[in-house]
Amino acid sequence: MSAQNAGPVGGTAAPASSADGGAAALKQLAGQHATGYRSVGVMVYDILKDAILNGALLPGQKLRQETLAELIGVSRLPVRSALIQLEADGLVEFHDRRGAVVKSLSPAQAKEVYDIRVLLEVEALRLTMAALTDARVARLRELGKAADRQQEGSDFVDARTEFYAELYDAEQRPVLWEMIEQLRLKVGRYVLGWRLVGDAEHSHTHEQLIEAVASGEVDRAVDVLRDHLVGVRDAVLELLEAESTATDAAAPASRGRAQR
């Protein structure tokens, strides 16, 4: 089955960039990830995660294991394992009748995620600044420039992840970092790739935060971080509320067509 005639991976309407249900994007990602992996399972997981984060697979879209396996060029077993891991990450959910679907967030859920993120990330920043070194500041400058050069897709995700892992000292605080990363993944697809929220994310450069951290002024650094998170949260909520309104408005028309 080719990407052109495979049909949608799921049944949700997609934007022009993924009008085939993400089939072409999955084929492309499979080619990009084809080498350098220790296992097929890790490769499939990375392909599907990238496809969700960059919008090739849409919130609410059904994920048929056999279709995904054929598009990526693997058996169904690693696809099943990857979907289970993505469920743990908060990117996929399983339903009794529909099977696996890309997880959607309600405005209330997104707000809760960001409220928790603010608490955890502010605490992580305070802990880092209590033991800040010149070497860490220099590394943050290097990683911040790399992150600001990336504009979209998995490279953008990876660059920002590396920056914040250094900022929050993930090596010394692995449990705290894992909790932060889980929350970031839950809302990542609403901020990255095709669902980038206005200029909320790109208007933020890491230089402002780095300079605040380098100054040693904890309250100043916390204010910069909190303002950024709250700004992105508000933009995400605006998008989700607009989509919810559009869905509610379309529902009567859909029911009318079904009854005719």
What can you tell me about this protein's structure?
The chain is mainly alpha-helical. It has two domains: 16-102, Arc Repressor Mutant, subunit A (Orthogonal Bundle), CATH 1.10.10.10; 107-244, Up-down Bundle (Four Helix Bundle (Hemerythrin (Met), subunit A)), CATH 1.20.120. 65% of the residues lie in helices and 4% in strands. The chain contains ten helices and three strands; from the N terminus they run H-H-E-H-H-E-E-H-H-H-H-H-H. A three-stranded antiparallel β-sheet has the order 1-3-2. Helix 1 packs across helix 2 (40-53), helix 2 (40-53) packs across helix 4 and helix 9 (206-214) runs antiparallel to helix 10. It starts with 22 loop residues before the first helix and ends with a helix. Keywords: DNA-binding, Transcription, Transcription regulation. This is HTH gntR-type domain-containing protein. Residues 38-105 form the HTH gntR-type domain.
